[in-house]
Design goal:
The protein has two helices and two strands. By secondary structure, the chain is mainly alpha-helical. It has a two-stranded antiparallel sheet with strand order 1-2. The structure holds iron/sulfur cluster (SF4). Iron/sulfur cluster binds next to loops.
């Protein structure tokens, strides 16, 4: 490998590494994702609410289960955060105390 391509390779590696760490930083700030709005068409289609206690349990598929985003298998992010990413709403965060009709029990 000649000197110039090797130097170029090192520069590109540094740029790639910087991009990786910048991406990791964005993931670490998941709570800063915009909150999904209850009147968002997707949220309405999923009957999403910020407050699971406002949902009539009888209207749910499994009324007996205690259902909030916090105990849903699709919730992501960090335990303890009030707003966290959800696989159903990419690029947005949902309330840990929220709920939607896609709720799934943790395996
Ligand atoms: Fe909450 Fe689960 Fe619905 Fe996401 S899929 S909004 S975590 S209940």
């Amino acid at each position: 490998m000649s000197t110039i391509p090797r130097r170029k390779f090192i520069q590109l590696s540094a740029v790639a590494a910087a991009g990786y760490f910048a991406q990791s930083g964005r993931e670490a700030r998941a709570e800063e994702l915009p909150h999904v709005a209850e009147d968002d068409p997707m949220a309405q289609a999923m009957k999403y609410t910020h407050d699971a206690s406002t949902v009539d349990a009888a209207s749910r598929t499994n009324p007996a289960a205690d259902q909030t985003c916090l105990n849903c298998a699709l919730l992501q992010g960090t335990d303890g955060d009030a707003w966290r990413p959800c696989q159903i709403f990419p690029g947005k965060s949902v309330a840990a105390a929220g709920w939607c009709s896609v709720w799934a029990p943790k395996g």
